[in-house]
Amino acid sequence: MSTRIFAFRFPPRRLRLGGLILTCSILCFSLSSLSAQTVTQILAKVFIARGGLTKIRALKSERVEGTISFGSEASGPFVVELKRPLKMHMTLSVQNQTMVRVFDGTQGWANNPFTGKANPDSMSDEDLKNISEEADFDGPLVDYRKKGNQVEVVGKDKVEDKDAVRVKLTTKNGDVRYYLFDASSFLLLKWEGKRRADGKEFPVESYFRDYRDVEGLKFSFQIDSGSSAINLTQKLVIDKIELNPQIADSEFTKPTAPDAAAPAPPSTTP
Question: Could you say which DSSP state residue 123 is in?
Fold first, then answer.
């Protein structure tokens, strides 16, 4: 899932899993050695750590299956399907209710049975902004200039027991996010940002763990998120990632109302 953060919503007031898809105290390696590394050099190391830009750009589709947990309150399976250029289909089943979010690159639809909305409706401008970022196949750092984003290396940091490089991303809309990369492996350790939902802004921190190789690309198989390091209320545990699966374009059209009593439907086609 690279640097995407998928924004799952459980009941109102529950923390959103922010994009994705993510500072601790300033410690360790010398500032001079860090400042000598330009944004281009840092990002080159980040992309190599993931498996290389050639392999990243070669991806045409992706399917991710796993389980999401909201603390001790509830958990359930999810499936996220992505297809270039900006298509996304997500199902999430919790407590015998199924949420569906779909984006065809321009329009989006979603239902939220947890707030009494069983039928999929057109997304608000706010939701469209969120899902269009989630559906960005490569994430906001790849070709960031073409996407209108600004990136800068802003310092050093510590994530748990690891030294990290802090990178600041400012989107073309003016939103600010921080990516903290392992100073040795250059894999993403942490993401910090905010998500807007229901007219409010929520701080989000996400921690990326359990990296595994999938056909030459590295993916995090566990993402813990919350409002702070001591308030991690959502956990994603990924069971399976398929690269370049066949996914019909019909998966990204307006969905029908899901069966509220049924578990999340299996994929028919992250």
Answer: P
Distances (CA, A) of 52 to 3, 49, 165, 166, 247: 14, 7, 19, 21, 24
pTM for this prediction: 0.81
DSSP 268: -
**DSSP conformation letters of 24-89:** ----SS-HHHHHTS-HHHHHHHHHHHHT-HHHHHH--EEEEEEEEEETTTEEEEEEEEEETTTEEE
Which residues does residue 100 pair with via DSSP β-bridges, in sequence order?
A: 91
* Parallel, antiparallel or unpaired: strands 231-243 and 87-94: unpaired
Which of 81, 120, 69, 66 is CA-nearest to residue 260? 120
Local confidence pLDDT in tens for the 270 residues of the chain: 455 555 554 443 332 333 333 222 222 333 334 444 789 999 999 999 999 999 999 999 999 999 999 887 789 999 999 999 999 999 999 988 999 999 999 999 999 888 888 889 999 988 898 899 899 989 999 999 999 999 999 999 999 999 999 999 999 989 999 999 999 999 999 999 987 766 778 889 999 999 999 999 999 999 999 988 778 889 999 999 999 999 999 999 998 866 544 444 333 333
261 burial class (0-12, 13-18, 19+ CB within 10 angstroms)? exposed
Q: Where are the alpha helices (DSSP H) in the chain?
A: 31-35, 39-50, 53-58, 125-134
